[in-house]
Amino acid sequence: MKGALSRANNIADLRVLARRKLPRPVFDYIDGGSDDEVTLRRNASAFEHYELVPDVLTDVSRIETGTTLFGQRVRWPLMLSPTGLTRMFHGHAELAVARASAKHGLLYSLSTMGTTRLEELAEAYGGPKVFQIYIFKDRGLTAEFVARCREAGFHGLTLTVDTPVAGNRERDRVNGLSLPPRLTMKSMLSFALHPAWSLPAVTGSKFDLANVSHRVDALAAGPISLFDYIGGQFDRTVTWRDVEWLAAEWNGPLAIKGIITPEDAKRAVDSGATGIVISNHGGRQLDGAPAPVDQIGLVRDAIGTGPDVICDGGIRRGSDVVKAVALGATACSIGRPYLYGLAAGGESGVDRALSLLFEEFERTMILAGVNDVAKLDCRHVRRPQELW
Ligand SMILES: Cc1cc2nc3c(=O)[nH]c(=O)nc-3n(C[C@H](O)[C@H](O)[C@H](O)COP(=O)(O)O)c2cc1C
Fold it and tell me: Does Oxidoreductase count among this protein's keywords (predicted)?
């Protein structure tokens, strides 16, 4: 492992390395949130308000960390969230992330907005994988994804429901980068000509929303950019009925990502979901939304022990995962922590991020005196009144 990566002691150090490597607009695209970034900050700081309450003098010579997610066995309760435009952060893109994820025995989510074709990822990657899907205006495109994922052997789907419109990411506006991106390929290229970073050097191949680009060629009668096509696909009419439709169409493990309330969690399960991803899109959509960690207990109480509950957003330490699982989550999910690693050093950087988090997780389990994740429960975590 290269010097700088091996000297990174935590996710915050990897973030500093990523900031050095990337042009500011690209770093800000990863790092930023919507409006005043209140939710972005709160997602992480909310974990500080929980104390870990240890047992002592238990045998912690061996720690059982494994669990099951989307019906797949994983090494510890963590998964990698879907992130779009990954090739912009490192030329090896999703394949680098997926390889590191497989090395760590974790579950990887490929985004619809990814820059690697789902078939290519499935071929190159033997580990457990889910595909993050949207219900687009063009339901045919969504149905096509379902069929392609089944064919390619994806183990589950995650339906993202917190993006009826793009969040107001002001850093991106200031930098001239919007989401969904409004950049044409030409402007994307010109944007990329940053002195410390060049798009062709970083990508080594065509930069593309690889899973949807064929659709534009087929459907666009006039001159429409790929990003305009996708931007126009976000559908504000989507309701629970559409979730029922998707659940029937897929007929396999399906998580709904972007749930905040126990009522919606219950509706999701009633509509056919097998899992809930408590998420506010990493503070990139509705600013002011509660931190996922604060919703775990409510959601778990509402849906019982059966469905997966994944706490997504704000995880920066392995101890955060211990807290979330003690509160009732099946697992946690991370976006920026692995992207900082990717930007800092490609596959080795993702590997470093996952190693650091795992070491922290395991050490926290030992110090908390809990030798099996299945034994973590609410008595190991407490939220003192004065910190509310
Ligand atoms: C650069 C970036 C791109 C993202 N792209 C997507 C996406 O395409 N689909 C999606 O459902 N969520 C997307 N997300 C949200 C993540 O899946 C996840 O919810 C979020 O990153 C979790 O918060 P964290 O970064 O604090 O771990 C993205 C997040 C980032 C940082």
Answer: yes
